[in-house]
Amino acid sequence: MTEVYLNHKFVGTVENPQQFTQSIIDERRKGTIPTNLNVLYDEVSDNVIIENDGGRVRRPVIVVKNGTPLLTEKHLQQLNKGEISWSDLVKQGVVEYLDATEEENTLIAFTKEELTKDHTHLEISPIGLLGLTTTLVPYSNYSPSARINAGSKNQKQAIGLYAANFGLRMDMDVNLLHTPQIPIVKTVMHDLSGYNKHPCGQNVVVAVMSFKGYNMEDSIIINKGSVDRGMGRSTYFRPAIAEELRYAGGLTDEIATPDKDVKGYKSEKDYRLLEGDGIIYPEAQIKEGDVIIGKVSPPRFLSGADEYSLTSNVKRESSLSVAHGEQGIVDCVLITESEEGNKLVQVRIRDQRIPEIGDKFTSRHGQKGVVGLIIEQSDMPFTASGIVPDLIFSPHSIPSRMTISHMIELLAGKVGALGGRFIDGTTFDAEPEDVLRKELLELGFRDNGVEAMYNGESGKQMQARIFVGNIYYLKLKHMVSNKIHSRGRGPIQLLTRQPTEGRAKEGGLRLGEMEKDTFVAHGASLLLKERFDSDKTIVPVCEQCGMIAVYNEFKKRSYCPNCGENVDISHIEMAYAFKLMLDELKSLGVYPKLNLKTKY
Known about the structure:
- The chain is α+β, with helices and mostly antiparallel strands and 600 residues long.
- It folds into five domains: 2-124, no CATH class; 140-231 and 357-475, DNA-directed RNA polymerase, subunit 2, domain 6 (Dna-directed Rna Polymerase Ii 140kd Polypeptide, Chain: B, Domain 6); 235-353, CATH 2.40.50.150; 485-531, DCoH-like (Alpha-Beta Complex), CATH 3.90.1800; 536-587, RNA polymerase alpha subunit dimerisation domain (DCoH-like), CATH 3.90.1800.10.
- The strands form nine sheets. The protein has a six-stranded mixed barrel.
- A hairpin with a 2-residue loop joins strand 1 (2-6) and strand 2 (9-14).
- It is extended and about 105 Å long.
- The mean pLDDT is 92.
């Protein structure tokens, strides 16, 4: 007897498992049992597995009987006329949904031509194997899956038009491309998904060549003339939000320009852009340190005596300023109410981002790279017909990655640009490469995509033929201006007295253990000593018991809590973090004795 499991629970046994499994499938196709049920007879373990719980990925395929699909021309005509719908095909058992379990016992044909008597199902379209963003990659059946996967992920990070009503929204960390374009080389998914309503890239002319070594590894070189004409320009939007909070005891914040008697008052220069209501005006140019929204708050700690005294009315400054390393223009100011009924002020700041060295660009094939150099148009190489490429891409990124789809798109984009039409690059169903090559030949170019190029600086013809074409490039949201970070002096943590961490907190750049080893290997010991004193402190130490002593700043005298005053106390230089560790050892009951020796 064969055991039957429903959602991994034993429910009974059957004598003829194949017949039982087939009868369930037949009944499901007739519509007598739910369509979300899937069944499998596992011959190895001799079990029937039935599943109908949630959380399973299921995909539609066309049912095949005796080598012929159940979906006929009549069905397609009825679908086109709107006489039947997709759900009718599922009810009729023409299309059924399989999960990973039931798919074990099926043989699915890729195309109609492949069908044999053994096949049980037929793919609706081979493109159904891929997800939404992956289907947007043209000619992706010519590249390894890992690269197509990377290209799919890169498209999600591309800058474009994310929403048509961006002007009415207060979103965090938003980028907008100024002149987005529809790709010349499209797939069927570009039309189905309405991609032309929210494009996120630009068609650029690319030359595949090495140039002065500035496009080594994955870097690219871009034409300054193209940047000046608007290639890759975007705007970065960021909101600043302040709320008038209510505190216990009836005290509240107040959004206004702070008076000079307020605790923590900055300088008049910092408040210069605020209007009468304490809020900045639209189109104001702001930079680091400028106050955007003026705000004063009640004192943090109220003692019992303060509540009755008249002097306790000193408020503290809590204005919102432009963060470290940021700048921009005030785009819009919004005054509204929060859910609690408090006054809420939102200010949107915009900043134009022009491509610079270090900004990230990518094609749709996982060929990402950063800008290594921006060259004047007059110094760029040019073709015999006078075309100057917008971008120079390194040929060394192709052999190891095998992204042939990238090269085919260059060729197809060239044909599309010259012929004034869109090229269909749908996976498994694209315009063939040899047809594109013939068309390129008819248009007066070499069919292999190469052209004679001239050196822009000397005017001499280059010895090698250069592959030139059009391709859709995306600018990614990873920009230098959002990530650049350095510091000399700045805020420190309260506990360890070491610099704070992270760009937002104006933190330090950590020299870790491995970096220390490189300095040791160089023999740069003095540089190492200099780098390791971010929390240098001078501590009095008792020479008798080796414990940390006390120095009284007012009386200008030192004493040891253990041994009293009549002992020698030396002032020792150490890291504050080490002093902190000694204190923590004491709290564990461990006696950390410091044995002092004279340096010389």
